[in-house]
Specification:
four-stranded antiparallel sheet
Length: 96
């Protein structure tokens, strides 16, 4: 299962801030989640950001999303995002 989240940063947040907080989020939250296989974050040329996460299953992704609502580490990371800009989609990876 592939989770693709697109977002924009709130005013005043710099790319360096994202890099720092993302590293902390990955180490102290994301890679502690059961079923997480890989995660990467990238910035677009127009100010849009994308986080791509590979999960073992949709249940793992849903469980992590629920836990993120009360995790101080996850809340700190998502506090950089303009709430109205966040769009998350899920894709089923093709075999082979």
């Amino acid at each position: 299962m592939i989770e693709v989240a697109k977002f924009r940063l709130i005013a005043g947040i710099q790319p360096e801030d994202v890099s720092e907080r993302n590293a902390h989020f990955q180490q102290h939250y994301a890679y502690q989640q059961d079923g997480l296989l890989r995660r990467t974050v990238a910035s677009g040329l127009d100010g849009e950001w994308i986080a791509i996460t590979w999960w073992r299953s949709m249940n793992d992704a849903k469980r992590s999303a629920t836990e993120a609502l009360t995790s101080s580490v996850a809340i700190d990371f998502t506090s950089m995002m303009e709430p109205s800009s966040v769009v998350t989609d899920f894709f089923k990876e093709l075999p082979g």
